[in-house]
Amino acid sequence: MRSTSPATCSRSWSISEDSLRRYVFHASENCIQELLSASDSDRSVESSNVNDGWKILAIDNGMEISKRRSGSLHTFRSRWLLKSVSAQQFITVANAIDAAKQWDPDLVEARYIKDLEENLSIIRLRFGDKSKPLFRNREFIVYERRETMDDGTLVIAVASLPKEIADGLHPKQNNAIRGLLLQSGWVVEKLEDGSCMVTYIVQLDPAGWLPKCFVNRFNTKLVMIIENLKNQVLACSTNGDA
């Protein structure tokens, strides 16, 4: 019978802000490269299915949803073209943490815990007891790094902090289950006609036991989130032009 030390279960690390900044910077470098690689693969259905491991799940209203196995979990990817919407217009809406609940109704709370640099932050995301099973009573302590590449491509890298660091920054609430986001985020490519190509990557470990079908049906929620966000971006763009 395997025993677990109570001290091990509850341990947390106190870390200086400088050490935290260095850790997040280096961790997010790898995340950015993974996001760019996933967004840079051939956009044809044939290549996506055969060459790089991505399996197309749906193509609906100009939006492609696909997934790729990553160890025991799946990484999900959505891509779509936003015509007449600039990369900066999209990022302004997608990165507005106060407005996140408008395009993800399961989200109960999203707030900044700490700003490490102008483009580097720690955020808490909390989902309530009325959220869908995959997110019910989950919370995520994540870093968010925002970078502009030399070609103008905008990248937002998001991933969970290690459990011990997260517990030191923000102790887990009694009824919450702390999930993990693994190398997730946005890649928004500028196009010459003032439009943009958006790629959203997410790999999720919800933590706690869930039927496998719930985890693998994440693409259904992803379609809903992206559709809501796309409509919000288009509405903001139209209002801005008015």
UniProtKB/TrEMBL annotation:
It comes from the Eukaryota. InterPro entries: START-like_dom_sf, START_lipid-bd_dom, START_lipid_transfer. Pfam families: START. Residues 51-216 form the START domain. Signal peptide: none annotated. One of its GO terms (cellular component) is cytoplasm. One of its GO terms (molecular function) is lipid binding. CDD domains: START (cd00177). This is PCTP. It comes from Olea europaea subsp. europaea.
